[in-house]
Amino acid sequence: VAVHVLNGPNLNLLGTREPGTYGAVTLAGVEERLQRRAEAAGVDLVFRQTNFEGELVTFIQEAGIAGAGVVINAGAYTHTSVALRDAIKGVDALAIEVHISNVHAREEFRHHSYMAPVCVGVICGFGVASYELAFDAIVPLLEKRAA
Ligand code: DQA
């Protein structure tokens, strides 16, 4: 079982970017936490970040074709990208959408997600723990699918 954790634009700035909203943990810190969890669960972790929409499409395709689960924080592309939605659907990826912040408590334009309808579910608002919650949620789903 493998999980690809995919990060979109500006998440490379985590730790210094709007710390009041996104906290002080860096993206490398998030990767470290997930790596520990993956080792404990016997799961292969692939952790990636890009600022380019098309590259995120490619990452989703690669994960889906490999039969890996997808935990995706697409950042602002969540609210704008039909291409990401089509990629998840196109490779039939088992995906969970995550956000560090509670997007529903923020500006109206963050309330809509193009991806959410093609994901198993959405986890948002728990800080970087949103990633860990999503990881814990996706592993049993992948194991069930592989059985
Ligand atoms: C985010 C929320 C998005 O609205 C925003 O554009 C981000 C980060 C989050 O993790 O809370 O870049 O996805």
TrEMBL record:
Biological process terms from the Gene Ontology for this record are: amino acid biosynthetic process; aromatic amino acid family biosynthetic process; chorismate biosynthetic process; quinate catabolic process
UniProt xrefs under Pfam families: DHquinase_II
Q: Which residues form the active site?
A: Y22 (proton acceptor), H99 (proton donor)
Query: Which positions does UniProt annotate for substrate binding?
Result: N73, H79, D86, I100, S101, R110
Q: What class of enzyme is it?
A: lyase
Q: Which reaction does it catalyse?
A: 3-dehydroquinate = 3-dehydroshikimate + H2O
Q: Which keywords, in A-to-Z order, does the entry hold? A: Amino-acid biosynthesis, Aromatic amino acid biosynthesis, Lyase
Molecular function per GO: 3-dehydroquinate dehydratase activity
Annotated site residues (Transition state stabilizer) in this chain: R17
Q: Which Gene3D superfamilies match?
A: Dehydroquinase, class II
The EC designation for this entry is 4.2.1.10
Pathway given for this chain reads: Metabolic intermediate biosynthesis; chorismate biosynthesis; chorismate from D-erythrose 4-phosphate and phosphoenolpyruvate: step 3/7
Q: Which family does it belong to?
A: Belongs to the type-II 3-dehydroquinase family.
Q: What does this protein do?
A: Catalyzes a trans-dehydration via an enolate intermediate.
Q: How does it assemble?
A: Homododecamer.
- Under what name is this protein listed? 3-dehydroquinate dehydratase
This protein's gene is called aroQ
